[in-house]
Amino acid sequence: MQMPDRRMFFQINWGLVFLTILLFAVGMVNLYSASGSRIEGGFVLSPFYQRQLVWGLIGLCVMVTCMLIDYRRIERLAVPCYVIVLFLLLLVPIVGKTVYGAKRWIDLGVMNLQPSELAKFAVLMMGAKALCRDGESLGWKRLAQVLSIGLVPFLFIAKQPDLGSGLTVLVLLGGMVLFHGVKWRVLRVCLLVIPLVMPLGWFVLHDYQQERILTFLDPTRDPRGAGYHIIQSQIAIGSGEMFGKGFLAGTQSQLRFLPEKHTDFAIAVLGEEWGFAGCMALVTLFCLFLMAMYSTVRDAKDRFGSTLAAGIFFYFFWQIVVNIGMVVGLMPVVGMPLPFISYGGTALVVNCALVGIVLSISMRRFVFKS
């Protein structure tokens, strides 16, 4: 790996670096609390936060490595990485590890690998490679070619089943398509047809996925079953009021009323302990994080770099909006982690790698012109 010119380090998006580390630090503090449970003998901690700290150190190394590598090399690696990820997705039904009725992980002994997280990374690279060929708006043929890049892994991921990760693949690719541009006649037909076709998706959903949508519309219809998660989450956030109950003082989380408190519902723990003010502070951090990333999208000097950065922007934007929306009851529960806050080793390393790629694009924006 060739080291970049020292002058490039002055062009690094240091605001993005600082916000990434700050978000991870907030996630670690929140995960420490989410790992704890109050029992009769005192306070017991699960090892989740320790594992996340190890993954965070690995992610930091990955982020620095991706930053030092010229992002233009990614274009050459896109096809082999995409093929490898498809192979891993094919292996999941055969050798995958089943957790809570879903087969999404491959047990490697020392760790569990989640190929659906790697699929997001592979689709980003392939999507940017396909879209940077020319600057013309997409017609029907080119649009179908680009969308097929995300549709194939989506079908594998939805079969696991993991609808949240599958939809993330499609949405981030859709964001890249909109950023690149679509011919008006194509966009007009899509805006008319998609709302008409979407209700048909109800019939291909699993029973539990249909139940999640019905529970989203009325959580009280099954308060001890499908609606339990969202009801306890809303109770936890609401009981935090303006400034919260204090660190490690949340009753819903510490007394184990709140399920999945270290993964999908991590922000409910933060809302109970730090209140509305704490949640708004976290949302502000995420907004600044996205703004720092958008500045790289805007300033990138070649089509591949700007398209890739735009895809990464939509990747984070979608996950942040959906996770917060489902925790407060504005969206159905789809199993979407909150970047840098929710527990998950594979997801954390992928997030750090994507930030590293954006930093690579940022520090090389004056090296050449398109």
TrEMBL record:
A GO cellular component annotation in the UniProt record: cell division site
PROSITE patterns cross-referenced by the UniProt entry: FTSW_RODA_SPOVE (PS00428)
InterPro entries tied to this protein: Cell_cycle_FtsW-rel_CS, FtsW/RodA, RodA/MrdB
E.C. number(s) listed in UniProt: 2.4.99.28
UniProt similarity note: Belongs to the SEDS family. MrdB/RodA subfamily.
Function: Peptidoglycan polymerase that is essential for cell wall elongation.
Protein name as catalogued: Peptidoglycan glycosyltransferase RodA
Provenance organism: Mailhella massiliensis
Higher taxonomy: Bacteria, Pseudomonadati, Thermodesulfobacteriota, Desulfovibrionia, Desulfovibrionales
Gene name in the database record: rodA
